[in-house]
Amino acid sequence: MKIVVCIKQIEQVYARSGMDPEHHFLTPLDRIVRVNPYDEAALEAALRIKENIPGTRIILLTLGAMIAEDELRRCLALGADALHHIDTDLPLDPYGKSKQLASVARQLGADLILCGKESMDRQNGLVGALIAGHLNRPFVSAIVDLEYFSDEDRIEATRSCGRGVRERVSCPLPAVLSADMGLYTYRVPRHTDLEKAAAATIQSVAGPIECTDAMVSSLQTMPPRPRPKQTVAPDSSLPTIERVQQLLTGSKIEKKGRMLQGEPEELVEGIMDFLTEHGFVEA
After folding, report:
1. Domain 2-205: what homologous superfamily?
2. How far apart are CA 130 and CA 176, in angstroms?
3. pLDDT digits (tens, 9 = 90+) for 40-56
């Protein structure tokens, strides 16, 4: 069995301390590069199949510039067998990316293609479904558990339907699945495996040469709308000035705190007195 896991490299900003106006006052030190966490969940699902099915081969497939090579090699050290890289600088939308990935997965003869349900940077969740469309294969989204039945050449997956609802589905192979971060706990590579992965050769593969026009164009990005503040209606029996003050402050109740000082025993006694006074514990 051959499993292709699509791994996206992403770049996230964790600080805004730089002084470079060309990059919105960010410096390279303010950015971190990593692999998409949802794709790590897909890799974990593939590794669990490999542990149970002898002869399973896992191939990692990434697209675009190698900005997170160390992280990709860490994924390779977890138990994948090879790392393939589609080196392209074409301006690709999700449709174009999926076409490149689907073409190479077809060349590799993948029985099962796994990817994350979405990327942490774009969050459009389109690539997995589009890959299935290019290959005319069944697609199951947002899986949190996966089991392969070799005698019937099918998989059973538990998928997240939102709001805590789970669905158990069955699907024949070949198929395309997208993974959600749910029930899986992720493993840590051993030092010897990291050394082997550091010396491994990254195989460069070619996708389709033609670049199709973008199917969907982004017109505008809008910030989230602020949520309206819920204000409790003032008591109509109060004088006008007090009702106005209650509207302005949001509450008529004055919040008071208590500062505790002294030895640890005195602090504990003060805390217990406060909890007892307000009914949190019984006297």
Report:
1. HUPs (3.40.50.620)
2. 10
3. 999 999 999 999 999 99
